[in-house]
Specification:
The chain is mostly helical and 670 residues long. It is 66% helix and 4% strand. It has 30 helices and 5 strands. Strand 4 and strand 5 form a beta hairpin. Helix 8 crosses helix 9. It is globular, with a radius of gyration of 26 Å. The termini are far apart.
Amino acid sequence: MKGERLFPSRLAAGLVLSWIGIVAVRALVPDPLFWTALHASLQAGFLLLAAFGLGVICLAPFPKLSNDRWEGLFFRATAGLGAVALLTLGIGWAGLLREEILWPLLAGLAVWGGRRIWLDRILQAAVRSARSRRYSFLEVVLLGSAAAAMGLYFLTALAPPTFFDSMVYHLALPDRFARAGRIAVDPDFAFSYFPMNMEMLYTLGRVLFTGHQVLNLLNFSVGILLLLGTACLGRRIGDSRTGLLAAAVLALTPCLGLLAVVPKNDLALALFELAAFIAWCRWFLDGDRSALLPAGIFAGFACGTKYAGIYFLVALGLATAVLALRRGGLKRLPVFQSIFLAGILALAIFSPWWGRNLVLTGNPVYPTLQGLFPSGEHLNRQGNRISIEKGGRTDLGGLLRAPWDMTFHPAEFRFFSQIGPFYLALLLPLIYSSRLRREIPLILFTALFAFLFWWVTRPNTRYLLGILALLAAGSAGVLLRLPARNRAWGAVLGGFLILLVPLNLVTYLSVERVLFDSLGLVLGTGEDRNTYLARRLDYYPAARFINDSLPGDARILMVGETRTYYIDREVRVSSAHNRSLAVRWAEEGKNARGFLEILRREGITHLLVNRREGKRLAAGYAYFNFPDRESRAAFATVMREETCPVYSGSEVSILTLGPCVQAARSGEHP
C-alpha cells in the first residue's frame, strides 16, 4: 500500500514525545538505575530496529509470511537477527569492525525498519482485542504473574554479568573481537571454533556501545521475541487468548527467566528453532509452499547459534516424515523431497561456521565428534589436544524417569535446568488432546525425537528451551479447551497450576540468589558495582588493577584462569579444554631459559595467576598436564626466579617478567 512507504506518523510522534518526557523527567528523577535502564534499552532497541529492517529485506521474496501482523513482526525480527549475525561475521572476517563502517549501515537499516514496523497499529489492535474479552481467574493469575516475572527478569538483567560461561566465552570472545577489530579463531581457545550467531550480535553491541547493560538487554530482547513467537504458535492452536496464555506459561518457567538475565546463546537457539517450527507449520499444515524456504533459513540460523540446533532440525524432519507416512504412505513422496530441500538450505545458511572449521581443522563440528573426524590433526601435532567432556546417557530407565527427574531433581541437568512442575502436570492432558488441533501431533513428535537426541548427546535442560516453547503453546490450548470438554478436570488442573505459580517464582528467586544475588545491587539497597563484582568474581580486583595500572600495550598470559571479561588489555588465554599455554611453552622450551625466551618472543609482559581456579582446572581438565618433569621444573623455575609480583590478592596475583631480588629474599614471592 502507498501508506507503507511512509514513516508511521504516530510512531514518530511517540518517539518525539518520549524524548521530551525523558528530558523533563531527568531533572525530577535522578535515579541512576532508571537512566541506566533507559539508556541501555534505547541502545538495544536501535539494534533490534536495524535487525528488523534487514529482516524486511530478507523476507521480501516471501510476502505471505507477513499476512498475519503478529507473525510478520516475529518472522521479520527473527530473520533480521540471524542476518545481522552473519553480516557481522562477514564484516569481522574482513577486519572491518569499526564504528565508522557499522554506524551508517545500521542507521540505514533502522530507518528502513522503522518505516515498516507499524508497531503502534499492532499494539492498538492488541489492546482492543484484550479489552473486548473476558478472562477467567486462571488466565488473570497466569498473565499477571507472568508480567510481574518479566519485570523481575528485566531488573536482574541490569546487573553486571558474572556467570562463568559468559566471562570465558559468550561475552569474552566478542570483547576480544571488538578490541581487535576483526573476527578470527584462536587455536588455543576451543570455544572460538563453535558457531556464534548470538555472539556476533554481542560483538556488534560491543563495538557500537560501552557497558554491559546493552548486551544483557539484547539477550533479554531475544527472550521477549521468544515469548512473542510462543504467542503466535498459541494463536495458531487456538486464538489470541491461547497465545497470551502460552507466552505466560513459558515466561513463568524459571529456566527461561534465568537464561533471560545471563548473556548466553540458549535463548537465540530457542528463538530460531521456534521460528523454523512455525514456518514449517505454514508449509506442512497450511499448504503454503513459500514458507518452506524460510523454515530452512531459520533452522540454519539455529544450527549457526549452537550445534544443538542440528538435533532440532533432524527431529522436525523425522516428525514430519512420521506424520506424512501416517497420512498418505508413499504417496507423500513430495513431502520427503521438501524435507531434504529444507535441510540442504539449512546447511547452506550454517555453512559459514561448519565450512570454516572444515577448512581449518578437517572437522566441520570441531571441537566435537573428534573420534569421527580428523579433528584438527595439525593442532594436535602442536600438542594442543582438546578435551571435550562426553555427555549423553543410554539407560532406558533414566530416559523414562527423565521428565520426573527434570522437574524435581534439576541439578542433575546442569545450570539453568529448573523448569518447574508446569510441564509435568500438562504433559498427559496434552497427549490426550492430540486430536484437538493438527499442530499438536507435530509438536509432540518433534518434542519426542528432540528429547531422544538430547538424552543420548548432552542432557542439559537449557538445550530443550525451544521444545519447552512448543509444549507451552500446546499446553495453553489444553488449558482453554479442557474445561469445555470436562469442567471438573479443567477446574482441578487450573487450580493446581495456580498453586504452582508462586512455586516457580520462588524457585527463580532462590536460584538467582545462589548464582547472581544481584537484586540488592540493581535496586540500590546493597553494595556498589565494584564491591559486587569483587564478591562474585575472585579475579575482578586483579582485572581492575590491570585496567588502571598497567600500560596500554601490556600483554598478559593467563595462568590458571580462563575468564578474561572485564580485562581491557590484550591477553593470551587457553580454554579449559585446551592445555594451558604456559604448560605448552614450558614443554617447547625444554628448560627455564627456553621457556623464558618463548615468553619474551610472544611479547608477554605480565602473567595473571589464579591459584584457586588453577587447582579446579587441573582437577577437572587436562589444563595443567605437564608431559614430563623437565617441563614442570622449567615452569616452576621461571615462576619463582624470573617474575616479580606487582599485585597480590588472596588467590590471584599479577606478575611481571623479570627477577624480583628483594621479594625473593624476603620470601614474599607468591
